[in-house]
Design goal:
single chain, 4 strands, 2 helices, globular
Length: 70
């Protein structure tokens, strides 16, 4: 994922029972993380590499989002 320099980053997270699809706007990148501790740890690591996160939008899906927002 990496840094965005001066551009703000907008992130969209689509949560399913077994995975999270994460869109990183301005890099036109979509990554998939498993919806379990190891995958979400990887997501957090990637998010920490971004300089400026302007907004994160998470789709709540029948309780599957609970682990992601924890």
């Amino acid at each position: 994922v990496g840094t965005t320099g001066e551009l703000p980053m907008f992130i969209g997270i689509d949560v399913a029972s077994d995975r999270c699809d994460v869109a990183f706007w301005c890099q036109e990148a979509v990554r998939t993380y498993t919806n379990e501790d190891a995958g979400l740890d990887r997501l957090v690591t990637d998010l920490r590499q971004v300089d400026t996160v302007e907004l994160v939008v998470l789709e709540a899906t029948g309780g599957y989002e609970a682990l992601t927002v924890a």
